[in-house]
Amino acid sequence: MKKSIVGEKINTLCTDKNISMAELAERSGLTTDQIELIINSDTVPSLSALMKIARALGVRLGTFLDDSNELGPVIHKQTETSEPASFSSQLSTSNSHLDFFSLASSKSGRHMEPFIIDIKPAGSHEPILSSHEGEEFIYVLKGSVKINYGKETYLLNSGDSIYYDSIIDHLVSTSNDEPAQILAVVYSPF
After folding, report:
1. Helices (H), the chain
2. pLDDT at position 70, please?
3. Domain that holds residue 34
4. The whole model's pTM is what?
């Protein structure tokens, strides 16, 4: 995913809906600076922020991830490779550590977003939790992950899973200095 595509889609949607950047910031709960960072940055700094923007604009998250119109079933073969969408878990330009590989990018009108996500160790920064409407299901495929959820912390290993309401502040990261891989299904109502 390139900044020009995401930025263009946000700008086009705002123009089509006659929404100013200030109004988008207010509707999404983000600051105008955060919106501008998302539009102008080389990486999308936060999946949570992008979900809030999608909600504020009345579109599904996939609007920013694909341009498909497939109405029937979509099959993703293991041999198919695609460019990942790289996000960080925070509103920062220095923390890209989540690579999302969409498993249903060609399905139009979907309400769930299934991904294989490669998680890289985040480094030594203070974690910042985020929240958005919806639910998430995570199944650990490889490695070990740490889920900060509200005031609780959960450690999950390969084969473990968690299902939670994403309106609660949360953060998914590796639990050590080794990369991990998860299957995540994100549901975001709109």
Report:
1. 3-16, 21-28, 32-40, 47-57, 62-65
2. 55
3. 3-65
4. 0.66
